[in-house]
Amino acid sequence: GTTTMMRQLIGVGGHNGKQMDFIVHFGIGEATSADELTIHWPDGKGTTQTITDLEAGNYVVRQGEEAMLIK
User: How far apart are the C-alpha atoms of 46 and 41, rounded to whole Å?
Assistant: First the structure.
């Protein structure tokens, strides 16, 4: 079956001119992979980024860059 999850961050910003990192967690239970992750970046331009065929694990995603799996 198809499962859709959504997380929203509100109040993004920084302190003393520095950008803050935000962590968003998606648990996929017993699944070993996710077909697709789409990120709607809060840049005021409507930028989206779609990452496909993700194996289960922890990832770092920065706007405009490839997802990096952290094992």
Answer: 7
